[in-house]
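The pair is quoted verbatim underneath.

:::
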Amino acid sequence: MSRSVFITGGNRGIGLAIAQAMAADGDKVAVTYRSGEPPAGVLGVKCDITDPEQVEAAFQRIEEAHGPVEVLVANAGITRDALLMRMSEDDFGDVVGTNLTAAYRVAKRATRGMLRARKGRMIFIGSTVGLRGEAGQANYAAAKAGLVGLARSIARELGSRGITANVVTPGLTETDMTAALPQERLDAMLEEIPLRKAARPEDIAAAVRFLAGEEASYITGAVIPVDGGAGMGH
């Protein structure tokens, strides 16, 4: 049965892989993007998710085209890496605003349709960094750790209405961001991964697809690592 699926930041990397996987299943997929072009075969909505008015307009457009959102994937995120002593207030605030506050914003708006339907799936794309920490990424780690508390609170609050909330935590993944890393840094990161390789975006999409499916109807408040073992024990 085709569902209304909304993915933030769905025009590249992990978000694109999720959008393609859900669309291949026959779902009606909408994605937000800020630059470039949206992927073919999905509804692209240009939206800055840090702007409440743009988020509201995006939901209205999606609801008109596909109906109320049934599966929400909060994927959009940014990095502004710096050592703590050199991290500016803006760099901390912007990362938290995009990676955590905006996730709250889209989740809150999605509850309208989900509560009426008495069902829904919320999936937040976190990070292994949010569980184990990382030097130079205090802002990013704090925001991604916050997604766990957000999702688990939603799980407790809305579970009786048939709404689940879970977090997928990718580790090192083959994206444009990874491609820009110096080889020395990349080699050091790979040494910390038991499987000794980075994930493909499709690996993360597979976990999201599972959590959005009927087989995962009794899973909520969970943190699902897709990190090659890098974060185990956290």
In short: The longest helix spans residues 89-117. The chain has one domain: 4-222. Residues 4-222 form a domain with the Rossmann fold fold (CATH 3.40.50.720).
